[in-house]
Design brief:
Organism: Comamonas aquatica DA1877
Protein name: Flagellar protein FlgN
Structural class: mainly alpha
Radius of gyration: 25 Å
Order of helices and strands: HHHH
Helix content: 55-70%
Strand content: under 5%
Number of helices: 4
Distance between the termini: 82 Å
Length: about 120
């Protein structure tokens, strides 16, 4: 396998992941990201076997462009994950045991009396 062929395969995987992100298909995107990660790991192992003559200025420039695309994709995924987390938190507020069992003074220790059964006075 030539370096240009390997780069072509990785570039195709990046295109697929980008398209799935835009189409908002979480399951398919997750599978494609796994395939991309596996492909990148395989490429990292193969890259050591390629001769220096295969690292032409065009191939190096292509790898730099792919790196930039991956960085943008990672940033986009991080932003979407943060937004999704915020939306989820607004729909389903975090539940706490303090509502029912009272707050414990020290982390890890259980409250002695449930608040809803505590009788004042």
């Amino acid at each position: 396998m030539q370096l240009s062929e390997a780069l072509e395969q990785i570039d195709g995987m990046i295109d697929l992941v980008s398209a799935l992100i835009v189409e908002n298909q979480p399951e398919s995107t997750e599978q494609a990201i796994r395939q991309l990660r596996d492909g990148m790991q395989a490429f990292a192992g193969l890259a050591q076997r390629f001769g220096a003559e295969q690292f032409t200025p065009e191939n190096v420039q292509r790898m730099q462009a792919m790196s930039g695309r991956l960085t943008q994709m990672r940033g986009h995924i991080s932003k979407v994950s943060a937004i999704t987390g915020q939306q989820l938190a607004s729909l389903i507020p975090e539940q706490s045991v303090h509502h029912t069992y009272g707050g414990a003074k020290q982390p890890g220790s259980a409250a002695s009396v449930a608040r809803m059964y505590h009788i004042s006075g």
